[in-house]
Amino acid sequence: MPLPHFLILILAVILAAGLTIWAASAIGIPLFALGFLALLAAAIAHLTTRDHRS
Question: Which keywords has UniProt assigned to this entry (predicted)?
Fold first, then answer.
């Protein structure tokens, strides 16, 4: 992946995270609850993946 594409991808991820945090705080969701939901989603995504190793 060329460097400009990588940097644009990183910028997009940072902007999406900032927008998510701003929108959640604007509607009154506590930061702790947002973090907990993100942690729960990551745990579910981790546990539902299969690596086919026995």
Answer: Membrane, Transmembrane, Transmembrane helix
pLDDT of residue 54: 62
What is d(CA 50, CA 29) in angstroms, rounded to the nearest whole number? 33
Amino acid in the structure at residue 10: I
pLDDT one-digit tens code per residue, 26-43: 999 999 999 999 999 999
Total residues found in the chain within this entry:
54
Sign for the pseudo-dihedral over CA of 42, 44, 47, 49 = negative
Domain boundaries defined on the chain:
1-50
